[in-house]
Amino acid sequence: MEKVKSPTEAVIAGKDTILLGTYNYMGMTFDPDVIQAGKDALDQFGSGTNGSRMLNGTFRDHMEVEEALREFYGVSGAIVFSTGYMANLGMISTLAGKGEYVILDADSHASIYDGCKQGYAEIVRFRHNDINDLDKRLGRLPKEAGKLVVLEGVYSMLGDIAPLKEMVAVAKKHGAMVLSDEAHSMGFFGPNGRGVYEDQGCEGDVDFIVGTFSKSVGTVGGFCVSNHPKFEAIRLACRPYIFTASLPPSVVATAATSIRKLRFAHNKRQHLWENARTLHGGLKAMGFELGTANPDSAIIAVILKDQEQAVVMWQALLDGGLYVNMARPPATPAGTFLLRCSLCAEHTPEQIQTVLGMFKAAGQAVGVIV
Domain segments of the chain: what residues? Predict the structure, then answer.
């Protein structure tokens, strides 16, 4: 991208291009208050911390963003990591140890799998979003062993959501702790925008929430929040937290400001869902195969038959002035090839209609639709 003009527009190869693949769900990257907070932090604290959080790398705004997270989620504890990837890596590898078990969805994000690999717990997978399979596999484990069930609110490839309420109930029946990754739902699911776990009414039973600043918050970083009474002790044992540099002051300042604005971003949430419904309905009416039957999230996946078709379709859209993400195995489930659209609250109704026109033209040219 040679120039980014707004949350929804950029210049690519000299051409104005609509952005439909950035995870900038709430469009906070160009918010004037967020930008000003970053500029002020640069002026007051410089460009970086030059140290880890356990040494000299905790500045005023690191404390501020953790307080903003506690306020947003209504919890007692919040820990900020350098990325969302590091948050999963650190939390999963620290929470479950030798002789214990991590139980995860087969379609889990790479950061969840890598968190399992970094630790010493046994790994048990269950079929994607299969409540009965989760119950069965938990039932086979030793009752006295520690268990951590790791779930995601929204699965990022197809945009499908987890039946968290039922899965959390199963986990608790077997005495397991629950961690839910809400990276792709923060900001616009639930009355307070906390995620799918809030939307499905299981806040009191989810022990740990992991999230990221790189999507709805509009910057970079990761976090975990919890009401666990010993949560703060994680800082003393979590290697991906201890042995890495802390985020620059300008980054955590922008994140704190953005999170506090997201608490009251009701109109943005409503507009994002309107965009999702319009795009999903329009693509479905044209005859495209989609990853979900309904507009379940801000991710809409267009499924194609093979890599060649996916590449040609992606290039046709880009040439026409639309950027989407192309995904292929092994990142995608069940060997699928797809174009993944990520909607933004700042997409205008006119842009959505333009996008639909571009998909229709490219789909017909490539032979995906008639």
Answer: 3-26+266-366, 32-262
CA distance 310 to 297: 22
Q: For 313-356, how does the pLDDT look when each residue is reduced to its tens digit (9 = 90+)?
A: 999 999 999 999 999 988 888 789 999 999 999 999 999 999 99
Q: What is the pLDDT of residues 28-74, one digit of tens each?
A: 999 999 999 999 999 999 999 999 999 999 999 999 999 999 999 99
Which residues are catalytically annotated?
A: 156, 184, 215
pTM higher than 0.85, yes or no? yes
The domains spanning 3-26+266-366 and 32-262 adopt the same CATH topology: no
CATH number of 32-262: 3.40.640.10
Closest by CA position to 313, among listed 299, 300, 302, 298? 302
Single-letter amino acid code for the residue at 239: R
Q: How far apart are CA 21 and CA 277, in angstroms?
A: 17
The tally of CA atoms less than 13 A away on the side-chain side of residue 112 is: 26
Please give the Cα distance from 333 to 335 (Å, whole number): 6
What type of residue sits at position 188?
F
CATH code of the domain made up of 3-26+266-366:
3.90.1150.10
The label of the residue with tokens 């939307």 reads 199
